[in-house]
TrEMBL record:
Origin superkingdom: Bacteria
Protein name (Swiss-Prot/TrEMBL): DNA ligase D 3'-phosphoesterase domain-containing protein
UniProt domain DNA ligase D 3'-phosphoesterase: residue ranges: 10-123
Origin species: Kribbella sancticallisti
Pfam families the UniProt entry points to: LigD_N
Lineage: Bacteria, Bacillati, Actinomycetota, Actinomycetes, Propionibacteriales
Length: 168
């Protein structure tokens, strides 16, 4: 049986604090910067800006990226796990993740430490941006904001502020 593809959500304090949502697709981590982080509320649409692909090895990175260029700053692994592709075409056939992303709509089921349940990524057509939306399922919970309720890393247990302080 093939191994399930991974996902990781890294909290990154670069020019602005944001969440990098990364999904293993075709041997790389397809990536989106989600400024406000994932929401468990299906009525909330989160902006997801595509960023450069990253290597699979980057999924476990935590630390402080030094320098003065864009992308510097503290990084923690806010969540991680595996996902199952749920994207289907009009004939209800499963669409592979790379094709789904090329087509502008990708639905997946996350099995992470913090994030569980189904999510949809949809390209909006405006500047190539996407929306990340929680699908209505048993894991949806509009009353909980995980970004504030659980700010720590799933690997080190550090918050982004604690990670930044390791370089002071």
């Amino acid at each position: 049986m093939p191994k399930a593809p991974i996902f990781v959500v890294q909290l990154h304090d670069a020019r602005r604090l944001h969440y990098d949502v990364r999904l293993e697709v075709g041997g790389v981590l397809k990536s989106w910067a989600v400024p406000r982080g994932p929401s468990l509320d299906p009525t909330v649409k989160r902006l997801a800006v595509p960023t450069d692909d990253h290597s699979i090895e980057y999924a476990g990175y935590e630390g402080v990226i030094a320098g003065s260029k864009y992308g510097t700053g503290a990084v923690i692994v806010w969540d991680a796990g595996v996902y199952q592709n749920q994207t289907r075409d009009k004939q209800r056939r499963l669409v592979d993740p790379a094709t789904a992303i090329d087509n502008g709509h990708f639905r997946l089921h996350l099995q992470g430490v913090k994030l569980t349940g189904s999510w949809a990524f949809t390209r909006t057509g405006r500047n190539g941006d996407w929306l990340m939306v929680k699908v209505r399922d048993d894991a949806a919970n509009p009353q909980v904001d995980l970004t504030t309720a659980e700010p720590q890393s799933v690997l080190s247990g550090l918050t982004i502020e604690e990670m930044a302080a390791t370089q002071s």
